[in-house]
Amino acid sequence: xxxxxxxxxxxxxxxxxxxxxxxxxxxxxxxxxxxxxxxxxxxxxxxxxxxxxxxxxxxxxxxxxxxxxxxxxxxxxxxxxxxxxxxxxxxxxxxxxxxxxxxxxxxxxxxxxxxxxxxxxxxxxxxxxxxxxxxxxxxxxxxxxxxxxxxxxxxxxxxxxxxxxxxxxxxxxxxxxxxxxxxxxxxxxxxxxxxxxxxxxxxxxxxxxxxxxxxxxxx
Length: 219
Known about the structure:
- There is one protein chain.
- The protein is of the alpha+beta class and 219 residues long.
- Helix content is 49%, strand content 16%.
- Helix 3 runs antiparallel to helix 4 (128-139).
- The two termini are 34 Å apart.
């Protein structure tokens, strides 16, 4: 007879996985939060996969799957926690934020600290944080990074889209020049399409002008 995974096991795994991937900023009071969450999530996934195997080996495979999945998930979560703490220490501040979602790191730099108005050239005196980020990416080589440019809605949508692409490419070029393999980097521009604040105020527009670095572990 073919064995099926009990419904309660599937629901429990889904619930725990959701709890383990809650988006949060780096928390210095709990620096290992994502290592623990990754281990739990990995163990649940591994156990669930093992439990779906039929025959007398179901329990054995379930335990083995939980161990392997927990080890992989814990290692990934621990690496994200360490990298987030280091980035927060080294470049956090001056408007730069580091957010650890549990699955990715999202580093956001205001474009105003990188570029002059209407320029796609990174100011030489403002490149140090990019070199620091490049060093972090070299220290954690098992990741990819998406460089995403964003603008406010001042000017035409086409102009803003092109400017955001040019700025993302400029930043990506600096990372590559600092030793990050080009194969790990994808540069894209979103223009004015993904604001995080109101474009009706100068403060909101300043928040929308930004470059995001989405760092994703290889699995």
